[in-house]
Amino acid sequence: MKLISWNVNGLRAIHKKGFFSWFEKENAEIVCLQETKAHAKQLPEELTQISGYNTYYSTPTKKGYSGVAVFSRNKPKSVIENLGIDKFDSEGRLLRLDFENFTLLNVYFPNGKASPERLEFKLEFYEDFLSYVKKIANSKKRIVICGDVNTAHKEIDLAHPKENSKLSGFLPIERAWIDKLLESGFIDTLRMFNQEKNMYTWWDMKSHARERNIGWRIDYFFISNNLENNIKSAFIERDVFGSDHCPIGIEITI
């Protein structure tokens, strides 16, 4: 089973940049998108009724902001569009799909760079999400988490760690949360297969950083420990353009 995750930075915008050509070429069982920036009613029918796929959207109250989507060949047993916390759920940041053999969480974690208040919001989201996913794990479910976490975990995960050590996205308290997630029984799938530098998923567009590969790895697939033997590969599609992020993916047998 092939799963893809991509922060598209505007689904309507990327739809005009060859999204469906890429989508059909991927031929994935599940595609998870973040930062869709659109309500389903604003989208053309071909993005809400994709042949061969079930489509799900979680959208924010504010238009042109945030939002996540999942396109899945198999229909889940249930779909949940929120954490159950109003201040987070109004931003459309989570889709949970419960399948017969595993639970998928597609998440667009907040960005903390705008202000101290947004950093605090991000950290609160982190803690509430961790509590939420621990409850799921306690039922012995197999779990896949994907999305834009908006934090680089280790120095290997960004081009200029020292220069960014005091900026949101690489603060010790943000990085420590990823440590807590892993200590809670989850695995960073890419690092199961690849310990190389320069494995980035986001580049600043204003400085043309992608041309020089001056980037950050802030997009992840995490799996629960009970799926460790099922994961076959993890990858980054650096050559796919259209957003300031690139797609990432895993191959897994479930």
Keywords:
six-stranded mixed β-sheet, Deoxyribonuclease I, Chain A, 254 residues, single chain, alpha+beta
What features would you describe in this structure?
It contains eight helices and 14 strands. The protein has helices at 11-15, 19-26, 45-48, 86-89, 116-138, 172-183, 190-193, 209-212, and strands at 2-7, 30-34, 54-58, 68-72, 78-80, 94-98, 103-108, 143-148, 186-188, 202-203, 215-216, 219-224, 231-236, 248-252. The strands form three sheets. The chain has a six-stranded mixed β-sheet with strand order 3-4-2-1-14-13. Helix 5 packs parallel to helix 6.
Brief synopsis:
By secondary structure, the chain is of the alpha+beta class. It is 25% helix and 26% strand.
How many structurally independent domains? 1
Helix content: 25-40%
Sheet having the most strands: 6 strands, mixed
**Considering the protein shown, what is the CATH homologous superfamily?**
Endonuclease/exonuclease/phosphatase
- Average pLDDT over all residues: 96
Ends distance: 7 Å
Instruction: Give the beta-strand count.
Output: 14
Gross CATH architecture: 4-Layer Sandwich
Low-pLDDT stretches: none
Number of helices: 8
Strand order of the largest sheet: 3-4-2-1-14-13
Note the run of SSEs as H and E. Answer: EHHEHEEEHEEHEHEHEHEEEE
CATH fold-level name: Deoxyribonuclease I, Chain A
**Radius of gyration from CA coordinates:** 17 Å
Strand content: 25-35%
**How would you sum up the global shape?**
globular
- Highest-level CATH class: Alpha Beta
